Every structure is written in C-alpha cells, then in structure tokens.
Structure prediction request, 138 residues.
Amino acid sequence: MARLELHPLPGAKRAAEVADLAARLHGERRRVVIWVSDEGRARILDDFLWTSDKLAFLPHAVWAEGVDVADEPVVLVSRPANPNRADVLLVGDGLPPLDWAASFAEVHDLVAPGEAGEERRAHWQQLTSSGADAEPTR
Prediction:
C-alpha cells in the first residue's frame, strides 16, 4: 500500500517544483516514475529538465512502448507503467489512476492551497480511505 506525501505548490511553477522534488528523490538514490497526462506534456517536462538548471543534471528518460529505460533512475510516463521498477511515483501533472498509484511504495504530489487544490485532495482521499498512509501537506 502506498505512502502518500502531499507537498504544497507555492505558485504556478509546477514544472520547477516537480524538477526540484525529482532531484531530491534522485539524491536519496530513489528510483522515480514521473506521471504526466500525455506525451506532449512529457516532452515539455523533458525539455524543462534538460534546460532548467545548467549546473545540475537529473538523469532521466521519456518512456514509450518498446523503449528500454530499465536502467534510468527517473522516467517520465504518460500511461500507467513502471518501466524502471521505481518505488516512487511523482505526479507531474494530471491525476493518475488510483489503482496504479497504489502499486508504488510512495506517491508524491504537489497540491495548490485552498480551493485550487481541492480536486487533488479529494482524488487522494480515495487512496487514503483504502488504507494508504498519508503525510499532510506541509
């Protein structure tokens, strides 16, 4: 059963927050799958990860059917898959299927404060009501 950790989204720069969180998790030597809602968004986030911080490198790949990314520590997916055997799911955008999210040891999401984050909190409430551990938004 997944442990859910909700992080505050302090502004509109979701990609930057996702990149920072992915870098932190990678620094902890965790294998990470980053969920994005479609292939176009995967490419946009991929470009951002390559160009956002010239002094830092986050090894990552974009997964597509038939592409071997098993050795990559961070993989972007737009379909429910775990091609690098990750134990951590990081939600880049959109909301992933709950049954798939529950298959990870940990799930991290960024939630906007107030009404803007209500849909996300309600989505994850379904996971926690099924027995997942939840860390409150900090």
Observations:
- The first strand starts at residue 3 and ends at 8.
- Residues 3-135 form a domain with the Rossmann fold fold (CATH 3.40.50.10110).
